[in-house]
Amino acid sequence: MSRVVLVTGGARSGKSRFAEGLAEKYAPLRGYLATGEAGDTEMTQRIARHQGRRGPEWQTVEEPLRVAEAIRAHEARFNVMLLDCVTLWISNLLFRCPGGAAEALAQVESFAGGFGSLTTPLVIVTNEVGMGIVPEHPISRSFRDLAGEANEIIAAAADEVYVTISGLPLRLK
């Protein structure tokens, strides 16, 4: 069994940079499992910023839906893997799975249930989205609730959990 670390926080809180720093404590080659897709200009720029921070000691695997399978398929190639991020993954699942939020949550439970069989350390990035106002639209509330439940499941199964606020990490577990 390998270590699993969850890093959470709000938008632009420094969580990805902190998670990358945790992963960089391991020797190269490092795997970066990207769940985001460049669907518009802003997302393309966001992805480019993340890629620009990583050097040749990182190899990117892009997988918007089948995260657990991608980790199992690639983990032996790397000394550490970083999943960025759960929030985009569950958003992808929410809009593409016929079973909606229930199916997405089942995939998260299966993913977290597999942590014990990992042989490579895994650092996971997610967002805290439920600390603000209640969203007006039902799909937004569904996403907020799904993100909260997914984070809770993953945090319970992780060995370590950090939250970043204003670029400062705080260890929770």
TrEMBL record:
Its EC number is 2.7.1.156, 2.7.7.62. GO terms for molecular function: adenosylcobinamide kinase activity; cobinamide phosphate guanylyltransferase activity. The keyword Hydrolase does not apply. Keywords: ATP-binding, Cobalamin biosynthesis, GTP-binding, Kinase, Nucleotide-binding, Nucleotidyltransferase, Transferase. It comes from the Bacteria. Pfam families: CobU. This is Bifunctional adenosylcobinamide kinase/adenosylcobinamide-phosphate guanylyltransferase. It comes from Geomonas diazotrophica.
